[in-house]
Amino acid sequence: MTVSRFDRRDHGPRLLTAPFAFFPVALTAVIFLSLLNKAWPLLSLKSLSSLLLSSIWLPSRGHFGLLPFVMGTLWVTITAFLLAVPVSILTSLYISEYAPARLKRIFQPVLDLLAGLPSVIYGMWGVLVLVPVVGKYLAPVFGHQSSGYSILAASMVLALMILPTIISVSVEVLNSVPLALKEAALSLGATRFEVIRYVVMKKSFPGILAACVLGLSRAFGETIAVLMVVGNVPVIPRSLFSPAYPLPALLANNYGEMMSIPGYESALNLAALLLLIIVVGFSIMARWYLVRISRRSG
Amino acid sequence: MNVKSEGQNRATLRKRLRVESAFKSLMAISAFLVLLSLVLILAIILWKSLPALKLSMITRNPGSGYYLGREGGILNAILGSLQVVFGATLLALLIALPAVVFLNSYLRRKSWLAETIRFSLDVLWGIPSIVYGAFGFLVMITFHLRASLLAGLITVAMVELPILSRALDETIKLVPAELSEATYSLGASRWQTATRVVLRQAFPGLVTAVLMAMGRGLGDAAAVLFTAGYTDKITTSLLQPVATLPLAIFFQLNSPFPEVQQRAYASAAILTILVLLISLASRSLSRRLSRHKIR
């Protein structure tokens, strides 16, 4: 006997709700295509590689080298990532393996709150605290001249912003490690740290990696907080103490008023498209990797 | 077999325990740093905002000369932010709710269509809000709209849509399959099951998801930067520009006048308090509503 998958009463609602479900797919395509469409005039004049590899940004003379912005984005994001990942993994291990129950209960709301704080607040805090710290204390120690508006300040702000995301996802992953596995290792005489190193981390590595990539993709697109502390100078950065000009900041500062100079509009849309492709590329890579991992273990 | 002497065993054990305590303290220190940073962020912002935090900040619009340090408040931005966020969340919910029902009730979990839709939601989730802002601006130009409440609201709704849909999807997945099987066995259609059983069961999760999306929308500056405009008045129509709190903070902070900068700190404190209230409300509501869930 065959059972039809749908009741006759379901035809209406199914047809009615379907367009809404396809909306995200359509929106993704439309965003991508409209940015590509707007970036096309410039792409048809100059090759993508010449735009990406040139470091001369002079819109009024028709030079649209995007290299400083791409490099700025990479510097800021990767530094933030390197700062945030060790701290968040250690913290999430502490929360899931060592912390007393009362402390655990405190951490969840704290993380939620940190994750929920608007980026302007982080940016403001960076201007008030981190920029002076970097400019007055850290830069001289390392023998650099810096106003404080620098890659280091920006990546510290950014690291703070992605910490809660990475920590809360990691804690969830760590909590899902079966207790029996840990008990087995403990009963063999392992210390708690050995249990963490050989059992817990091994079991939860893919999940923690996914958490980190989640944080990374958030860091790539963060705009306002970074813009406020990074200095916004379109040169290729030389050290952590030099200013930079990441792609999101470029968009935020110029996108609204780009109409007068020919090619400028195209260049900015190309910047937006680049940012989109970088972020989406990362999320696709993470997804592909996770699928592979889960297939191998499952 | 390798038999170690008693003394050797003691020595390695001591070493292992030393590694244990070293890493444990490292973990405790980083956890403490995370807690400390939150306390520092909140404390410094509140401390800085105290001199300018007056009642007039939340009861008055910017007066003439406000940006030179004279009288006024940011009522326009507070109301404007709420208008944008409520409108955007409503719009996002109107799309997300049917989409998630379709995804969970009318598609097989592993079908390629469901996978494609979920994947596109993941992609949208990852798109930075500044790109939404840029896209919103392009849409605005195409339809000859000015920067307005409507444009800002639509852009923020695009930012919120993937957050809301993914959260709803997750809560609906958690509803036990036995519940829907029970209603199917009673002859209910999928639509009846979805609307009267599954969504009701997932209601606490829905409320949390909505509040989470609202929190995100409230603080998002990049999406409204080109699309919502700014005004010193209270917005009364969808086609007028609207002021928003994050932008109010941003603009005031860039002012050369210390009085205005102090008001930026006060505005930041107000925004933080709003976000905090939303987060608290979501916690207490989800706890209260979960009492009626079937487990």
What does this entry look like structurally?
The complex is a heterodimer of chains A (298) and B (295). Chain A is mainly α and 298 residues long. Chain A has a domain at 67-246: MetI-like (MetI-like fold). Chain A has helices at 11-45, 48-53, 67-98, 101-116, 119-141, 151-175, 179-187, 192-221, 224-229, 247-254, 264-297; strands spanning 57-58, 63-64. A two-stranded antiparallel sheet of chain A has the order 1-2. Chain A is globular. The mean pLDDT of chain A is 88. With 295 residues, chain B is mainly alpha-helical. Chain B has a single domain, classed as MetI-like (MetI-like fold, Orthogonal Bundle). Chain B contains 11 helices and no strands. In chain B, helix 3 crosses helix 10 (245-253) and helix 6 (149-174) runs antiparallel to helix 9 (203-219). Chain B is flat and about 75 Å long. The N and C termini of chain B lie far apart (54 Å). The model of chain B has no long low-confidence stretch (mean pLDDT 89). The chains are: A mainly alpha (298), B mainly alpha (295). The interface between A and B is large, with 85 and 87 residues.
What is the structure about, briefly put?
The complex is a heterodimer of chains A (298) and B (295). By secondary structure, chain A is mainly α.
**How much beta of chain A, percentage-wise?**
under 5%
> How many E strands of chain A?
2
The number of helical segments of chain B is 11
Largest sheet of chain A: 2 strands, antiparallel
The CATH class of chain B is identified as: Mainly Alpha
Order of helices and strands of chain A: HHEEHHHHHHHHH
- State the share of residues found in helices of chain A, binned by percent: over 70%
The major beta sheet of chain B can be summarized as: none
Supply Rg of chain B: 25 Å
What pattern of helices and strands is seen along the backbone of chain B?
Answer: HHHHHHHHHHH
Unreliable spans of chain B are none
Instruction: Name the biggest interface.
Output: A-B, 85 and 87 residues
Query: What is the H level of CATH, i.e. the homologous superfamily of chain B?
Result: MetI-like
Under CATH at level 1, the class of the domain at 67-246 in chain A stands as Mainly Alpha
